[in-house]
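Forum: Protein Structure Q&A
Topic: Joint prediction for protein chains with partners

I've read a bunch of threads here and the consensus seems to be that you should model interacting components together rather than docking separate models afterwards. I'd like to see that in practice. Below is the full input, 1834 residues plus whatever partners are listed. Could one of the regulars post the assembled result?
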Amino acid sequence: MNSSFKNEINQARNIFDWISSRKTFMIIILCCIMQISTKAFSQNTVLSLDLKNVSIEQVLNEIEAKTSYRFLYNKDLVDLSAKVSIVVKQKSVSKILDQVLVGTDITSSINGKQIVLSKIEKKSSTESLKKVNGVVTDDKGEPIIGATVAVAGVSTGTITDVRGNFVINTQSDGQLKISYIGYETKIVAINNQSQLRVTLIENTKLLNEVVVVGFGTQKRANLTGAVSTVNSKDLESRPVANVAQALQGIAPGLNISQNSGSLESRPTINIRGLATIGQGSSGNPLILIDGMEGDINTVNPNDIDNISVLKDAAASSIYGSRAPFGVILVTTKKGVSGKMQVTASTNFRYSEPINLPHQMDSYTFVNYINTASRNLGNGDFFKPDQVQRVLDYQQGKLGKKTIIADPNNPNHWGDGYSFGNDNVDWIRAVYKTSTPSQDYSASASGGTEKLNYYLSGNFTNTEGFMKLNQDTYKRYLLNAKINAKLSDWASISYSGRFTREEYTRPAALGNNLYGNLGRQGWPTLPLYDPNGYLYSSPSPALALRDGGRDKSQYDWNFQQLSLTLEPIKGWKIIASANYKIGDEFRSWYVLPTYNHDVNGVPYFSPQGWYIGDNTNVHEQANRINYFTPNIITEYTKSLGKHNAKLMVGYQSERNQERNLGLTRLGVMVPENPIVDITSGTDNSGKIVAPSVNGMYREWSTQGVFGRVNYDYDGRYLLEANLRYDGTSRFRKENRWKYFPSASAGWNIAREAFWSPIAGTVNLFKLRASYGNLGNQNTDAWFPTYQTMPFSAASSGWLINDTKQNTSSAPGLISSALTWEQIKTYDGGVDLGLFNNRLTSSFDYFIRYTNNMIGPAPELPVTLGTNVPTTNNTDLKTSGFELSIGWQDRLKNGFGYSAKLVLSDTKSNITRYPNPTLNLGQYYAGETYGEIWGYKTIGIAKTQAEMDAHLATMKNGAQNAIGTNWKAGDIMYADVNGDGKIDNGTNTVGNHGDLVVIGNNTNRFSFGIDLSADWKGFDFRAFFQGVGKRDYWQGSPYFFGASGEGVWGAVSFVQHIDYFRDATDPLGANLNSYYPRPLLGNNKNIQTQSRYLQNGAYLRLKNLQLGYSIPAKITHLVKIQKCRIFVSGENIFTATKLASMFDPETIDGGDNKNGDAYPLSKVYSVGLTVNF
Amino acid sequence: MNSKKIILLMGVIGLFIMSSCSNDFLDKQPISSLTPESYLRAETDLASYNIKMFEDFQVFQTEGNPFAQDNGTDVMASRGYENKFVPGQWKVPQGGSEWYFNQIYSCNYFLQNVLPRFKANTLTGDPAQIKHDIGEMYLIRAMVYFRKLKFFGDFPIIKTTLPDNKAILTAASKRAPQNEVARFIIADLDSAILLMKPTAPDGARNRLSQPCAQLMKSRVALYEATWLKYFKGTAFVPNGAGWPGATKDYNASYKFPSGSIDTEIDYFLTQAMASAKIVADATPLVSNNMVIQQSTTDPVNPYCAMFSDIDMSKFSEVLFWRRYDLALGVTNGIAAEIGKGNSGRGFTRGFVESFVMANGLPIYAPGSGYAGDDSIQLVRKDRDGRLQLFLKQPKQLNILYRSPLGTHSTPVEPYPDILNVLGNADYPTGYANRKGLNYDEALCGNGKSYEGEIVFRAVEAYLNYMEASYEKTGILDADAQKYWKAIRTRANVDPDYQKTIDATDLSKEAANNWSVYSGGVMVDKTLYNIRRERMCELLAEGFRDQDLRRWRSMDQMITTPYHIEGFKLWGPMKNWYAPGTLTYGIGDASTVSSPLVSLYLRTYEKTTTSLVYGGYKWAMAHYLQPLPIQQFLITTDDGKDVTKSPLYQNPGWPTTPNVGATF
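Posted by a regular:
Agreed with the consensus. Here's the joint model:
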């Protein structure tokens, strides 16, 4: 064993002595031991060189190539970029080095065959120093305050003052390094000048931009996969509830939708459209925050440095089975060495619900319902005396008498539905029309080259629109990051993140509240009884106000430790351990509610419909422990114009979950609804056993992966990935799988033949990729195990007046269940023109989701249980993404930019177990989202018109849909001319008069981002929308009266436009939009072309105007930068949709009826201050 | 170290960590769930499985109000007419329908797994109770199969769970002739009788017991016997003319196990009599004091309380019932529904007029004392006690015990709200049911009632015996006489049934009551009166529809429509309604039917555009349900040619979807 080997061993031991002895780290030790050198060592190696105007680094590379010497140095400390020329013949290496390194601050020492380069200790010879003055400005000529000015190679430095000026003592032939956050660092040679003027360029570089990719980074110019990036500026000053909302429309192919505005609701995120229609599997993108899976909505938007969206398989395959449908990499800010930077920002928001529908007034309502009832031959629903009272009340004749006493029980008020005569817009009785919220953030960052930190905190308090009992959402975020350089070859970083969300709401605010409001919030239903007490019939208000609350607290604690070693130049080992603890505690309690009798005496009135009958306290807790260690090692090597990088790594994940919950009846002290002081008794005093639950479960994955990058001169780019992955979801035989991917690129603009136009077209790159991935994201954690459904003390069949245990037959399970396979092809082109002022990128992709878990081929029902699902369904999704951006700054300092992103996907089902091609389910050949319906001719204005229409069809006309066709009913078109309107056998082969009338897939999603700045003012307008979408809204929210009868009828002002003839109390309306309303019949509201909705929209998502107070003023109060802004969210919407719906929530709500909690229009004013 | 070595080294690292990928780390099992291997091993496991069946199965759980199940017959009507009485409107379904086997699968899974363990004596727990649990499962399977028998007639008999293999499942789709299905059910019931305890083990009859199986056996046997008898020779019985089963090889040469259809009928009648007698002799009827409680001091009438009590275990006649409990959140909506208009179901005029007088005479008989039907009070006067007890009259108190929980109570019976179309307060015929009424307002919360529900009531055995013995022998034997008298005595009707028989005029009865007929022909007066007794005693309990079908009592409506009528609106009772609210002859806006058509309220004949304006009609095919077409297609190789399926359609139903019956 020779000395150099010992040396390496010692070095390795140094590294590992202080790290844990985990298995993965042991591997590295093993690897180091294997670094056995066999090459003979020559004592007096001599060589010849003839190099002109090359960097020192190239000289060293040349020496390494020709000898067995190896250089060891820290790239960050030793600057080898200086150009030198050297011509030597047969000189020793040490001589050559002396010659090369003369005039630099680098010294060399040879130790065996290893040559260590290090920086010369600075001599403090002040007499050779010279005072240099300078001013640092940005490209607009504005002084930069607080920029770090350092003598290159020395840790001492200074900071520019309020006018951007600095004074520094340095050698007259030295170099100054000037840096400032957000700007490109510049090195300036002093060259004996005593007055310097330095202009820093903002960090908007494109070609040299480094993009975060899976387990590493890549220069944008060298990217071959489909990756979109978002930077912190895109997210600035958006008064949104969470990051995902701010991402909507920003990155092409990243689809964000939020169909409920409820405070706790999260937007759904998807990449490149429909991922899977597999039963029991999901296709969400993998979201990694600094390398660990997390919820993007709990990230402080101000902490985000950048976001990469890995869209194609080539980019995401390194994450294997967890990432078949793309990856979103969120990188948060790191500490920056230098003077401490403190940023504080705050904003105050004012939100209004978007599109709260208006209900009919009470008199119109009773007429509407009566007409709809009469139209079906059922006579008036509301009796004349009630109708009269409704009218009298509206005219003020009844004062506060919203209801009469119950004729059967005169001491109580009557049932609100049968006797009410109030005139209430229940939507507005329950929802506020505005609500405030606040957001506060602060961060501090600083430190030295060796140790730096980033700390931040954020607090958001949002109030919802509940009028009677406020719903609130609070979020607390804390983030700390520390990076430490342990030695030249080792650094460590730690990050700790804590997030807390608190959501509280009335216990009665369940999902069904929204539905019930429209359905049962009859305008005639009294909100308050004549004595002024809130009155429940039952109706939604009382339970909301008095029925108790539901409180949730979600905590996430993220701990990440990462060690980076670079034992040999170019070879890095990065090991990290990531641990995440999630805790959810939720409690809700139900308090007693009281109605008041006619004398104002309260009596207990359980609100079972909304909150259950008995007072109770429910507590539940859920804990998730998630651990993912990973280790990667990579080696970078350049030989001439050949550049290569090799990476291999290992990752495993283990996710453990446990939960418990309990409910006990009988709140004893309504002020303190706590389990220990519940009586355990029901309303009648009977003791009821508390209900309890609890369980454990876990899943795990494991994978090894490797990646090779190669490029020749930055012109020809190649990347290949391979991952071998296993998951606990499947049995041994089907558990492991290889996921390969490859991509290639050609930077045509770097070719010699391009040089004539290279000045105009700076970047022209073609890309192509292919990858094969698998999806293990089954909803069930143990999809291959048969389990016995069992439930303790839960039976609805009582024995001895007690609930019994129940069990039932297990379902059939296919233990051969295995991976869904995803193959993605992607082709793209990147363009940069006019000095990269115009940039564009385009991708076209085809993604095959094959072997999805679908319904098994239908079997005769003699089986008697559900046919086990198997892998038997295929889907093809294709689409494109386009982004075009222009940015420029005029000579007068006016800067502006415009960016358009546009993407589109469409999916076809290529295989599906539906041999009869029944339209009731998916079928092979279906374009996903297609809507089958009848063609509408129109509404018959007269009986004669209807009769004439029916007479055109000799074979039963419209009888298959309904009978008793009258004026005001729909005339459907006999598309197939068979003399009757029907859906045939409802199959592709025989669909009768049904035709495809539209498609509900979001097509042509776009975002338009316009911004400008001038003399401290900045402006941004960001539009987002969908270019094409059809939607069939067949619910009572659209139609009003329907087959659901009186308890399912909804009455908005839009519904007033229904067909009426001259006999109607409300007057004739022959040219109505809606047909004759029918309470309890659907013949007029079949899926049909007339009422198909156009879901396309354009929404002004964000509009902001900011002003940065000039630095010379702010400096007076020691502030570097101060920006005030006004910002608005969801300001304006253009859509052709029926006006009671919002294009984003039309498919939201309990039953996808568009009856969701409304989204918000938000106005905010804010302030950001940098100290 | 040069590049090659580093790459080599990284390769070695890769290999090393690959070898560290271990399957142990990825072997995760559902530790919080029970596995089939570990369950159904102990007596308590078996019990939990049975109880889940009790709760889930429609055979026990009527949907909503159990006293509304006679709707869609000649005795009860709701606001909307029934499509089955409008030939052409009941259509062959593409999929769905009652043609499913999930409950059968659940039973078979239990028996298949438990029986071998039972035989090997590896089940833990009290052996007698284990036997009882298994017996219960046989009874449950019998009940599930009886439901299929009633809907479809011929039906596949599947005794084990089957693999998800199309060929096997197609073969299993072969329909067994309906008498074979009935024999299979009886075999299951015999197993149940053998294994179960004579009294329910819980002590409150919320578990099954031997008498339940005996009663069920008499019900099934009587059903099949009368079906075979009245449909004999038609396509609706095996080997009858045009029986579709004959078109399939596997049934083409079917032979009755007893030799002929007549011996088969006799076999079933014998079974019905024997098992009915065991139950009837062992179970006395609950008494009736004819009190309709109107104050808290009035004595309770056990005969009324039996149908609405929270605890039904005190009534010997109730063999099996379901308990509810508000505190446990196990509730129904019965009390509030009965307090109002019985879920929008009303008795028909035909039904009300079929009740005899308390003196035993039909209302039309000379000297009957019938007071007429100008008011509900008059129509109840001196009638069969059951009509007096169970037909509501305005101003009666429905609530005697007040409670704030009763948000949906109706403390005083109102005038029938025939104009109210609001489902649960609707009185579509004017005559409303009172059976099941509970006087405690606490039970009248919205869907928060907790009165019990009867599943088996022993009086059915009395009725089954009377009918089976008369069908078999043509005479009323001593037992039948004894039972009949017991029922009439309890009903406060003169027990001399012969008096009623003698005074019966079938042509008058036929105007009201479909069960005068079998196969379009009037039956004899004794048999009709046995049927009448059954109808009156089982009032509103959900037997009427299956009885009418097994008696083949609707053929006459193929040619002669029947008008569903309610109370006599266009007599003095019209004054119960505000002037101007009763409108007719103005199309859809009409609120009631015209007095020119009938003095009685014709709920379905308010407008001439109603599809049943001309009355209810019938089609033979409607005696059985059509099979869904998808099941034909899925049991063929090509998914197209329905004739290649082992299935055959029921008589009169086409093999194309969405069309009505052909005859």
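Chain B has a mean pLDDT of 93.
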